[in-house]
Amino acid sequence: EVQLVESGGGLVQPGGSLRLSCAASGFTFSDHYMDWVRQAPGKGLEWVGRTRNKANSYTTEYAASVKGRFTISRDDSKNSLYLQMNSLKTEDTAVYYCARVSTFGLVLHHDYWGQGTLVTVSS
Amino acid sequence: DIQMTQSPSSLSASVGDRVTITCRASQSISSYLNWYQQKPGKAPKLLIYAASSLQSGVPSRFSGSGSGTDFTLTISSLQPEDFATYYCQQSYSTFPITFGQGTRLEIK
Q1: Do B32 and A35 lie within an 8 Å CB cutoff?
Q2: Which of A32, A51, B24, B50 shows the smallest number of beta carbons within 10 Å?
Q3: pLDDT tens, A67-89?
């Protein structure tokens, strides 16, 4: 059974840092791209960023709203995904989901999601 | 960025109704369109990928169609467990990946 379990959320002051983790199990983690998606309270879904797999050199992509502040990394030996968040702003307050990326031909989609971890940025 | 616009933003319907939700992209995205269902306090769940392919385990009353800029999600006969918020998502080649604003489906 595929499982994704996020951790590391909490309350942080504006300008602070936080590192989220996502522990994966039930599939070959190293084969897959992995994404972070967030959802502000009462709002819609916002894609945060992606890390590709080793075959694609672990390259990353980011939303403009987080580029230069957030860093996505992975440790395939630990089946884990990370999101390092620096210079946090109040508008980064959200539930953060990790999501597995799968492909159908060239169409990528998020077929499994974690339960989410809440990050609150407030003084 | 590719903008995704869903209509309606909210919808009231009854059990047994046929419901259609529309998603329009600001430029052609071929069939790079996915649909998700989200219930309160839960993670999104993939329903449809590549515009019309049903995700494993999803009931056949859900279907998707469209290509280019216009897409639809149809629920053929609403069940009580279908009341939720639905999002479309484009995964065309250019970043960022973007979602529609969501359609909240409520019980009439």
Answers
A1: no
A2: B24
A3: 999 999 999 999 999 999 999 99
